[in-house]
Amino acid sequence: MELSIDLLKKIALNVYDVIHPILGSKEASQKAQKGAGGDISMQIDLIAENIIINTLENENVSIFLISEEIGEKYIGDKQKAIENQNILIVDPVDGSNNAVRGIPYCSVSIAYAKGKNMGDIKKAVVLDLVSKDIYWAIKGEGAYLNANKIHVSDLDLSNKSFLELNLPKKNIFKNIERIKPIIQQFHRIRILGSSALTLCQIASGNMEAFINLRESNRLVDVAAGYLILKEAGGKFFSVKGVDFDLELSIKINFPFIACNAHLQSFLKKNLLLLDFY
Fold first, then answer.
1. Please, what are the domains in the chain?
2. Which phi and psi (to 5°) does residue 50 adopt?
3. Residues 36, 40, 46, CA angle at the centre, nearest 5°?
4. Is residue 104 within 8 Å of residue 24, measured between CB atoms?
5. How many CB atoms lie within 10 A of CB 41?
6. pLDDT single digits (tens) 187-238
7. H or E stretch covering 135
């Protein structure tokens, strides 16, 4: 049995109904244990994850769940999940630090795959936990914002291109100096705090590129945004300029580059010259 895009949207909306009212609250910010993704989980993360698990159980879904907090877990009939190669990759709250402080840039990210690698992701939903906008995609059928089809922008460096930059704190000023020739070519630089949403911003043409050089970046952060971006005509590749087809696992971490089609050659060429990693 294959999960429908409507079920993925239902899961995301169930998270929104509970999480939206507590954004910026003391309840949301209470710290819990360290999550499987490596960060300290907050109550808002655990609440959202429990909603996802409860919805899957109520829908009698058999699936292998990869989630930032719980790690990896079979839901329903383990044997059926294995036979059907059903995998759900979720970040219950992407942008948790924004969410608990009331900064309006956070999301729930849900990707569905039939197979073991990123190329096997078939459906994706990213829901903005502030605006309730839903970005979604089905492989081979395009990407959408609510009911409207979206596509990356056609802007290049001769236009007012926007870039989001995410760097590790270690050697941050050294790295900024190294990529200065790249970032100087962009009109504006942003640091927003939800990778899933930023990939959707590029997919919908509101931004042109995202350079994320943090080696700790997790698969759960980008799995849904990856498909939405690709279906919108965007590009997603490593700092070595290679397309990804990584294993679907909570253990997978990687830096990445995302952009519209016009900026792909410029970014690949200049990042290779800098010889990152």
1. 5-150 (3.30.540.10), 162-274 (3.40.190.80)
2. -65, -35
3. 70
4. no
5. 21
6. 999 999 999 999 999 999 999 999 999 988 999 999 999 999 999 999 999 9
7. strand 134-138
